[in-house]
Every structure is written in C-alpha cells, then in structure tokens.
Amino acid sequence: MSCCHCDAADGVFGERIARRDLARYRKRGPNATTRWLIEAVRSQRVKAAQLLDIGSGIGVLSHELLTDTAAHATLVDESSAYQAVARDLAAERGAAERCTFVHGDFVRVTQALPDVDLVTLDRVVCCYPEYSPLLSAVVDTGARWCALAYPRNGRHIRAMISILNLGFRLRRSDFRVFVHPEARMLEILEAAGFRNTSDGGTFVWRTRLLERVQTA
C-alpha cells in the first residue's frame, strides 16, 4: 500500500467512525462477516492461539476470540482512532495485558511482529491497491490458520464499489476500495500450503478459513 493510501485510510476511519462502530458493536454484537469468521475459527477448536488481527478496527474479532481461542492478540491498524477505541475496549474487558497494539500498515511493520498461529483479515484485502504484497506477508508470518473476508467479484458488487469510490473522490480523499481476483489471491495462499477449510459469507462478502497443511 502506498504511503498516501495509508494516510488516506487514517483520515477516512476517524474518531466518529470508530465511536459509531463501538456503539453498533455494543448494541448488536459482531456484524455478519466478523461473526462468521469467529465461528469458523471456533469450529476448529483452536486454543491458546497467538492471534494477529490485521486491519483490526476497534478490535471486535480479537476481543471475541480472546474469550476462548486466543491467548494473546496483536492488533494492527492504520487508523489511530480505531487503535484508541480498541485500547479502551481491551481495558474495559480486562484484556489489556493480552493485547499488543500496532499502528501502521501491516506490510510495512510485519518484520517487527511476533510469530503467530492465526491471522485474520476481516474486510481488509479490499483496502489494499495490491493484494500480492499483503498476502505474501501473511504467508511469511508462519501462521497455521488464515481467516479472511473480501468482496465478491460480481458486477453488482463492482458497481457498488465504483459508487463508493466516486464518493471518496468527490471528498478529495485518496482512499479507494478494490475488488481483487479471488483465484489469484487464493493461488498465493495455496502455494504456501494453505487449503480451504470452510467458506461462506453474505451478499457482498466472501468469507474463508484456510489451514496450512504440514508437508513432510
């Protein structure tokens, strides 16, 4: 991701959006895609995992998995507002000591991050102009599990995103949303030994949980 796009992401996802997301979470719980990812991971009976939550937002996925699946969560996000709310939520839930917060672009900070068992990218790939560096960095974490959600590549979805990007352009924001080719994204993960364990999603989002197969 280019530096200008990183700065744009921090501008788009500001305090108002972060507080809105927090209020929505407290009222309704995790949204549909996040809930699917959480349940998919839980179905594998993963325990005491080291979690890397890329594009963590206010930390919903991390905080939910810390209750029964993750021993520790590293939350990476480019939005300082999201990081601030995620910290507050962790303190509120008594989980602050089990969380590490990293403000920045995952691709740029990955070398400084610890080894992990599980990587999550909940509606994150679509925020990157180039998916290959992002997914290659995910592969390099050594994680066994990868859970991700990304837009379906249909005409109706591309039309919706074109309208969304027009809005960003009219607001003179450099931030854009992208629909990447699913087959090529999966090729990167599959070449590293990941295999699809389960998939699902909503009208807009495709969700997947992949496990890295150990080879002799």
The ordered H/E elements are: HHHEHEHEHEHEHHEE
Say what the CATH topology is.
Rossmann fold
How much strand?
A: 15-25%
Number of helices: 9
Biggest sheet overview: 7 strands, mixed
Radius of gyration: 16 Å
> How confident is the prediction overall: mean pLDDT?
93
Record the strand order, biggest sheet: 3-2-1-4-5-7-6
Helix content: 40-55%
Give a count of the beta strands, DSSP E runs of length 2 or more: 7
End-to-end separation: 35 Å
Description:
Helix 2 (15-28) packs parallel to helix 5 (80-92). The chain has one domain (3-212): Vaccinia Virus protein VP39 (Rossmann fold). The mean pLDDT is 93. The protein is 44% helix and 22% strand. It has helices at residues 3-12, 15-28, 32-43, 60-65, 80-92, 106-109, 131-140, 155-170, 182-191; strands at residues 49-54, 70-77, 99-103, 118-122, 145-151, 194-201, 205-212. Strands 3-2-1-4-5-7-6 form a seven-stranded mixed beta sheet. The protein contains nine helices and seven strands; from the N terminus they run αααβαβαβαβαβααββ. The protein is α/β, with parallel strands linked by helices and 216 residues long. Helix 4 links the parallel strand 1 and strand 2 (70-77).
Please give a quick description of this structure:
The protein is α/β, with parallel strands linked by helices and 216 residues long.
Topology:
Layout (H helix, E strand, L loop, with lengths): L2 H10 L2 H14 L3 H12 L5 E6 L5 H6 L4 E8 L2 H13 L6 E5 L2 H4 L8 E5 L8 H10 L4 E7 L3 H16 L11 H10 L2 E8 L3 E8 L4
Parallel strand pairs: 1-2, 1-4, 2-3, 4-5
Antiparallel strand pairs: 5-7, 6-7
Helix pairs in contact: 2-5
